[in-house]
Amino acid sequence: METIIKILNEVKPGIDYTQQVDMVTNNVLTQEDIVKLVAKLNITFGIQLDPEDVDMKWFSSPESIYKLVWEAQET
User: How far apart are CA 35 and CA 53, in angstroms?
Assistant: First the structure.
């Protein structure tokens, strides 16, 4: 989880990602931020996600991003 928070801070600094806020619904992350985030997740975790194919619900919280990465590593 620390790595996910670190990547989020690189993509969009100045946000407290430990707060329970839906990052998509509350416009914390823009589409551009998500594209950058996916690229960093792909590199960091050795996975292959395509931002256009990933449901936005996966980017609502650091926990959901962690689950997305975990599932991508399992396939």
Answer: 11
CA 57 to chain centre: 10
| Rounded mean pLDDT for each run of 10 residues along the chain, 75 residues in total | 96 93 93 95 96 90 96 88
pTM: 0.92
**Residue span of the structural domain in which 64 resides:** 2-74
Fill in the amino acid letter for 47.
Answer: I
Q: Among residues 12, 6, 18, 10, which one has the least CA distance to residue 31?
A: 12
CATH number, domain at 20? 1.10.1200.10
Tally of domains within the chain: 1
